[in-house]
Amino acid sequence: MSMIAGEVEVLELEALPQEQGDRFVAHTGFDPRAPASPYRWFHICPHRVQAWREVREMPDRELMRYGRWLV
């Protein structure tokens, strides 16, 4: 499980730079820019990131705090 807290900017797909969209397609095999798809692009500036799989990992789950990576 992961939790990301931060500032989010919601962009229309037209605001997505061509190069970033092409990299996304190459990585995922899915193109959200297809005209039949009502998708949006999110730009996230994280302030805090946590990740864990089990309860025993909870004490060390914080990976980023105040925008600084801890790992």
Describe the structure using short key phrases.
71 residues, alpha+beta, Pnp Oxidase, Chain A, 4-stranded antiparallel sheet, 4 strands, 15% helix, 41% strand
Shape: elongated
| CATH architecture assignment | Roll
Number of strands: 4
Number of domains: 1
Low-confidence stretches: none
What is the straight-line distance between the termini? 17 Å
Total of DSSP H or I helical runs spanning 4+ residues: 1
Portion in strands = 35-45%
SSE-based structural type: alpha+beta
What CATH calls the topology is Pnp Oxidase, Chain A
Strand order in the largest sheet: 1-2-3-4
Mind describing the biggest β-sheet?
4 strands, antiparallel
